[in-house]
Amino acid sequence: MNIDLLKLKTALSDDIAVQFVLKLRLINYRFLPKNNFKIVSKHFKNNLKTLKQGLISPLKFNNALTNIIQENGRLYKEPWFYGFEYEYRNQKLVDIELQDISKYIIGKKILDFGCGSGEISNVLSQQNKKVTLIDITDHRTDPNKKLNFIKSYDSSIIPLDDKSIDTSLVFSVLHHNNSTIIKKLILELKRITKKRIIIKEDIYNIDMIQNKEKLKNDVFLQEFCTLSLKSQLNVIILSDFISNLIIQNNTQIDFPFNFFDDISWRKLFSEFDLQLKLVYLDGMRRDESDYYGSCHIYYIIDVL
Ligand SMILES: C[S@@+](CC[C@H](N)C(=O)[O-])C[C@H]1O[C@@H](n2cnc3c(N)ncnc32)[C@H](O)[C@@H]1O
């Protein structure tokens, strides 16, 4: 696991971002039994405090990191916490994602690049799609082990033939890679995809986006937009760290925190002659009562 410590330290030093992320990350646990909510709340706050206290020296910071990874492992093994997270990530989240984007998926041959647990592919395969899952690490949960999985050994290469896929899904993957690899991956996606690429990312600086329907009913997104751009970036950095490391205890993933703002993503796509068909800002509100831990956007791209 490689972490861009400078970016993480900068984010941890931004009190506005830390407070915003804590509020956003804790809201969905409010329906847990009171005692369990208290445990999660204390855990998140203590983890961030311990890391912040470690900022004074590299050795202290590394020790703090090692300790919190062990502690998070313990919380993740608690059946009530694991059950809560499993239900959200493998059931609710996938339903919401597919509600949002299934109308943009074209064709039968689907690539789930950086598939993680593989849950979205599981649902798509039940809808008769021919899914291919690729990841550098096999994080698949049991029921998804039957799906067609290819382990990737080079993070900048997609081991598939030219134009062998109709729609490629790339959900929350690119920011875990450095900029050179991101560019190579976009070229690879263009090479192997016949029709469409759908990229989901955490986003900041959303001024350019024309359709901001989501802003109306999304109080967190409204507040997020009032933060400075630096704090917005720090929010998504901290949120990514909390989600992958503190909540899911995923130590097999890199954290270069390579988040771009909306303008930079658009520039990158046009650099590679990719036609942006639609930008769907999903924001922070995921349903009536709950929120994502970050600000989400989907770039729906046509490959010509
Ligand atoms: C945050 S998880 C997202 C998983 C899944 N796409 C989802 O939305 O739930 C990121 C996944 O991308 C994978 N990944 C990151 N960079 C990759 C690369 N260059 N090639 C293949 N997989 C990659 C990681 O191993 C991890 O499983």
Description:
With 304 residues, this protein is of the alpha/beta class. It has a domain at 107-223 and 257-302: Rossmann fold, CATH 3.40.50.150. The protein is 47% helix and 18% strand. It has ten helices and seven strands. The protein has a seven-stranded mixed beta sheet with strand order 3-2-1-4-5-7-6, with helices on both faces. A hairpin with a 5-residue loop joins strand 6 (275-285) and strand 7. Helix 2 (15-26) packs across helix 9 and helix 3 runs antiparallel to helix 4 (58-77). The longest helix has 23 residues, at 79-101. The mean pLDDT is 92. The structure holds S-adenosylmethionine (SAM). S-adenosylmethionine binds at residues 114-116, 134-137, 139, 152, 155, 171-173, 176-177, 244, 253.
